[in-house]
Structures are given as structure tokens and as C-alpha cells.
């Protein structure tokens, strides 16, 4: 990091080295130069402040916000006005789901009975007289 700051600082401070013409430093280059000097002097302080700020965000701010949002969500979900509006819809949907489940159970029981009857018929041993009548 410091290498790049020094490199950029040299480019701005000594423009004659980097191009053939020599221009006097302008106000912009002075601002950039002063900014880079400030960065050079306070780089470790800035890095540590950012690091500890990030740690505070992860370990203190985000858990607090997440807990707060969970409490708000629960509070909104148990709001009596909202529950009173949603309860009839919930009952209607559950009744429809129950009807669908009952129809599926009836269809499955009927299918099971058919398969059992076919299995019985397939496994049934025929008497010799029945075999004779089938051959004719």
C-alpha cells in the first residue's frame, strides 16, 4: 500500500520526470499531493479504524438489528387486527387442502383395492375343470 502511495506521490510531485515538458504544479496536484501525504502519515490509523469498525458492525450492530427486526416481525405477525383479517382466509385455504387430501386418500385406497384384487386373481390357483374350460 505504501509503495503505491509513494509511487503516485512521486508522479504528482515530479511531473517533469514523467513527461518531457515541465509544468508548474496546479492547485489540483497540490490537493492530491497533500491528500497522499495525509494517507502516508495516517495509513495504519485508518486501517485500524476500518478494521475495528467492521468488527463492531459484525459483532454488535448486525446482531442488534437482526434481533430488533425479529421482534418487529413477531409483533406484526401477532397483531390482533391482522390476525382477525387473515384467520378466515387461513381456514378457507386449510379446508380446501383438507378436501384435496381426502380425495387423494380415497383415490389411493381405491387404487390399492384394485391392485389387491388383480394380485389375488393372478395368484389364484385354477382347478383342473377351469383349465379344461379355458382350453376349449
Structural class: mainly alpha
Number of helical regions: 5
N to C succession of SSEs: HHHHH
Query: Which range does the strand content fall in?
Result: under 5%
Using only C-alpha atoms, the radius of gyration works out to: 41 Å
Spatial separation of the terminal alpha carbons: 101 Å
| Helicity range | over 70%
Which secondary structure elements does this structure contain, and how are they paired or packed?
Blueprint: H1 2-13, H2 15-18, H3 27-77, H4 80-123, H5 128-135
Helix pairs in contact: 1-3
Characterise the protein shown here.
The protein has five helices and no strands. The protein is mostly helical and 136 residues long. The protein is elongated, with a radius of gyration of 41 Å. The longest helix is centred in the middle third of the chain and has 51 residues, at 27-77. Helix 1 packs antiparallel against helix 3 (27-77). It starts with a helix and ends with a helix.
Summarize the structure.
By secondary structure, the chain is mostly helical.
Keywords:
136 residues; mainly alpha; 5 helices; 88% helix
Amino acid at each position: 500500500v505504501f509503495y503505491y502511495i509513494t509511487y503516485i506521490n512521486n508522479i504528482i510531485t515530479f511531473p517533469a520526470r514523467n513527461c518531457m515538458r515541465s509544468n508548474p504544479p496546479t492547485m489540483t496536484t497540490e490537493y492530491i499531493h497533500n491528500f497522499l501525504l495525509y494517507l502516508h502519515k495516517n495509513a495504519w490509523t485508518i486501517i485500524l479504524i476500518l478494521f475495528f469498525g467492521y468488527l463492531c458492525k459484525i459483532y454488535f450492530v448486525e446482531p442488534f438489528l437482526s434481533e430488533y427486526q425479529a421482534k418487529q416481525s413477531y409483533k406484526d405477525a401477532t397483531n390482533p387486527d391482522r390476525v382477525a383479517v387473515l384467520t378466515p382466509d387461513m381456514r378457507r385455504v386449510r379446508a380446501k387442502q383438507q378436501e384435496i387430501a381426502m380425495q387423494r386418500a380415497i383415490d389411493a385406497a381405491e387404487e390399492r383395492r384394485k391392485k389387491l384384487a388383480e394380485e389375488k386373481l393372478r395368484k389364484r390357483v385354477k382347478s383342473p375343470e377351469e383349465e379344461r374350460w379355458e382350453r376349449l
